[in-house]
Amino acid sequence: MKNLGKLIVLFIALIFATINAYGQIDTVLRDKIIQMANKDQDWMMNPPKNVHDNSQFFQRMEEIYQENYDDAKVIFSKFGFPGYNRVGKDGSDKFWLVVQHLNKWPDFQKLVLKKMEAEVKKKNASPDKYAYLLDRINLNKGELQIYGTQIWYDVRYHRTFPYPIVDIKTVNKRRKAVGLEALEIYLNTTTESHFALREFINLKSGVKKPWLYKVPSHMFGKY
């Protein structure tokens, strides 16, 4: 009986060990994804000082997108959309970021979106990031946005505007459902960011502040 008891204990221990092993974060995969995303962002935000013209900048940017697409295809074919349980929230969100910028490969983006949706439903991926990818895909197909995440900045009015949205009167309900702030708050934040980037030009032309959207008080705090 004692031996049987030991076997049962060992069997249970092995089960928990197996569960733990499969539940661990794949740090190698996560680090690879983060490196891909950082390569994208570092070049976009801080290109080397020896890059003297736009053609050099965009040529390298296209090369990075191609490299990331090649790597993302391999990752996706093996793991599907990597969720929190495989690469952590940071790794999962970074994979989304890489795919978000692969506009040259819309069919691949659609495949990723479908798998990501399944992970979001299992609370294993970020719903707000899913909203950004869905809007990006819709916009590139010439269709209306659902969440209003895709915007453009008009230098004449010093203000960001969303590309066309389905039923804009209810967009904030949809945004709230996926954890996004009210559209007006989002547009004001992006407007201020763009305005700050052009501050010298704006001041030179006599424009001292951006044109912000009016945000109803109920959208602050508890929104």
Quick rundown:
It holds the Pfam family DUF6624. The chain has nine helices and two strands. The chain has helices spanning 2-23, 27-45, 54-79, 84-100, 106-121, 127-140, 171-177, 183-197, 199-204; strands spanning 151-154, 159-162.
How would you describe the overall organization of this protein?
- Helices cover 64% and strands 4% of the residues.
- With 223 residues, the chain is mainly α.
- The protein has a two-stranded antiparallel sheet with strand order 1-2.
- β1 and β2 form a beta hairpin.
- α2 runs parallel beside α4 (84-100) and α4 runs parallel beside α6.
- The N and C termini lie far apart (61 Å).
Structure characteristics:
single chain, 2 domains, two-stranded antiparallel ribbon
Instruction: Please give the largest β-sheet.
Output: 2 strands, antiparallel
Oligomeric status: single chain
What is the topology, as strand order, of the major beta sheet?
1-2
Distance between the termini: 61 Å
Q: What's the shape?
A: globular
Q: What percentage of amino acids are in beta strands?
A: under 5%
InterPro entries: DUF6624
SSE order and pairing:
Layout: H1 2-23, H2 27-45, H3 54-79, H4 84-100, H5 106-121, H6 127-140, E1 151-154, E2 159-162, H7 171-177, H8 183-197, H9 199-204
Antiparallel strand pairs: 1-2
Helix pairs in contact: 2-3, 2-4, 4-6, 5-6
